[in-house]
Amino acid sequence: MPSPLRVTMVSRIYRPEASAASFFLGSIADSLSAAGHEVEVITARMPKGLSPEPRGERVRTFPVLRDRNGYVRGYLQYMSFDLPLFFRLLFSRRPDVVFMEPPPTTGAVVRIVCALRRIPYVYDAADIWSDAADNATGSQLVIRVLRGLERFGMKGARRIVTISQGVADRIAELGVRRPVAVTGFGADTESFRYEEAPIERVFLYAGSYSVWHGAEVLIDAFAEFSRTRPGYTLRFIGNSTERAVLAARAVERGVSDSVEFLDAVPAAELRPRLTRAAASLATLRPGSGYDYAFTTKAYSALAAGCPVIFAGPGPTAPFLREAGLHVRAGEAVDYDPAAVARAMGAIADEGPDASARAATARWTERHHSMSAVAERVRAVVEAAAGR
After folding, report:
1. Are strands 58-62 and 38-44 parallel, antiparallel or unpaired?
2. N or C terminus: fewer CB in 10 A for the chain?
């Protein structure tokens, strides 16, 4: 048998901090450890109240700047992670392979250090950051620099993994000619699972909501829905620079008393909220240059048995429609307030069905478990190390 690998994973975010990326990276670490490999994670110090929960991997943290929402997001925040990372990765015990999570600035640091030390690395391109930035800033200089850094990081990778063919196609459009494996994403079915509970009159949006998500369509839809079905709550849980914008829109539409904004919570706290919600919500603004993105929060909701209402373009819509052939997965609609309001009404009229929710959770675990995806990523990491 080949000797175990030493694998270093690099990410500014890691479990138990609430994020789809955290759960995904943790599952990859679990898969690598289960295969006998030695795994070390270099990450940021957790927010106050959280601490690493290793399951066989070694987790090394260091202090970073966080924004006012407690997230490592923004140029100064990224720099506070990437500058120390350069030296920590440069002088750490030499691994056989590095697996890294963006932002692109981290990709640039990893490429430089790995080139100096002749270490292969795998780039996790779950999405294209420079495309997202195109919707968040009007500065073409910022976008050009970010795109250059993103290309630089990906072009140095021995392998690239991504969650959908749409992202793989976009990587090729950017001129990156590296082997790309479409591994999918999946649900963390250990953290998100179904447990029967009373269903609340709540529509829940869990996760980040940036400009390119276009979550304001939910405010407009909820206002329309509430005119005929009062008594429901629209609840956002997560980090966003758009919170003030959405809160002001709720005031304009006369539903501010029924719209809540809560900070991100760990998976253990989010799971029961999803289990009790009437439906989970997800959006993607059309024409944002990000139409190929998959809204991965749909996996976690379905794993908890919660139906999903998705509004927008991209691969999430056909995924939900296909899932709907097997279980009560929810509905994919156009990015339109009236369409979303009708979907909310359909959920409200159907009422809770414990057996249907349990079936949805079982189907998701069987077909879209994150552990199965992590096994595919592990194979890519092993291949990048020459195994």
Report:
1. parallel
2. N
